[in-house]
Specification:
Strand order of the largest sheet: 12-18-17-14-15
Order of helices and strands: EEEEEEEEEEEEEHEEEEEEEEEEEE
Largest sheet: 5 strands, mixed
Strand content: over 45%
Distance between the termini: 127 Å
Helix content: under 10%
Shape: rod-shaped
Length: about 300
């Protein structure tokens, strides 16, 4: 007859007892030995039941569109070999489960003695891969723009980053998550982010309209007696987007040349026209201006206008 914690555990005619649940169980047994001289053998003690133990590591999907959650059973403690099951489906000796959709799962591990442990875990939905990206914009030639791939909650998932300028690749492979661009004309910039482990793909685009805006910065009047020295000469103050001045010519109203300079930088007042001809101050009035500029995008443009000289 077999007892445990003062309760009958099994039919006394059975030679084997099944104990469920982890913990300590006191037992007392009495066995009748039928021999030449029949006798009783009595034993008692403490039965310690240990169920299989393990550590469960699980990850949520990286992309919302794909069931890429996973779970792994590690640090198993029990009597091998083991048999695993997930939501009632037996996987044999498999300890890694892939392609799991967000939801609740029950994982079970049973060892060779038939002891079994169950654990419930939840695969959370994927982190949203949407993030703010600059809207289409307009810049002046020579302006810059910072483009950033992010945020860190996405970048920490190990994406390969690719930057495109129109259809040309600016960077592919070990790219920075931010770049500074100097568009030389109307341009479409594209950010592509591809997961290193799964088939997750993110693409962002921005359309950048570029205006040269050079002519708007050319003055149409100056005075030799101006208080500020930079206003005493006629020059091209614009440096943004200008590689150099190819030619800078001034004519009077009869098309007589009054001043000329070639191949120099813009933005320097001392290199402009001071309102003199052959060392002498000219008469107050309107003069014809013809300027050819080389822009930073490689394009040359010509400006034709006038400037008024005031004494």
């Amino acid at each position: 007859m077999v007892f445990g914690s003062s309760q009958l555990l099994s039919d006394p005619t059975l030679s084997r007892v099944t104990v469920s649940g982890e913990g300590n169980t006191e037992f007392w047994s009495q066995i009748r030995i039928m021999d030449v001289r029949p006798y009783l053998s009595t034993k008692s003690g403490l039965l310690k039941v240990i169920l299989p133990r393990f550590r469960l590591i699980f990850h949520k999907p990286l992309c919302n569109d794909f069931n890429f959650g996973s779970a792994s059973i590690t640090n198993l403690k029990g009597v091998p070999p083991y048999q695993t099951s997930l939501n009632g489906v037996v996987y044999g000796s498999t300890f890694d489960f892939y392609l799991l959709a967000p939801g609740e799962y029950n994982v079970s591990v049973k060892d060779s003695l038939g002891c079994k442990t169950d654990t419930v875990f939840t695969i959370l939905p994927a982190t949203s891969l949407s993030f703010p990206f600059p809207a289409d914009t307009t810049l002046y030639l020579g302006d810059s723009l910072i483009l950033v791939a992010g945020p860190d909650s996405i970048l920490n998932n190990k994406f390969n980053i690719i930057w495109l300028q129109n259809k040309d690749t600016l960077c592919s492979g070990n790219c920075s998550d931010s770049i500074v661009v100097f568009p030389k004309g109307t341009t479409i910039y594209t950010l592509q982010m591809i997961s290193e482990q799964f088939n997750c793909f993110v693409e962002k685009k921005i359309f950048v309209n570029v205006l040269d805006g050079i002519f708007s910065g050319i003055p149409n009047v100056f005075s030799r007696s101006a208080i500020q020295s930079e206003n005493r000469t006629f020059y091209i103050p614009q440096t943004r987007g200008v590689e150099k001045i190819i030619s800078f010519k001034i004519f009077d109203k009869w098309a007589n040349p009054m001043f000329a300079r070639y191949d120099f930088e813009s933005g320097i007042p001392e290199l402009g026209w001071d309102g003199t001809f052959e060392g002498k101050e000219i008469e107050q009035g309107v003069y014809v201006v013809v300027i050819e500029l080389l822009l930073t995008n490689g394009r040359s443009i010509q400006y034709e206008g006038s400037v008024t000289v005031i004494k």
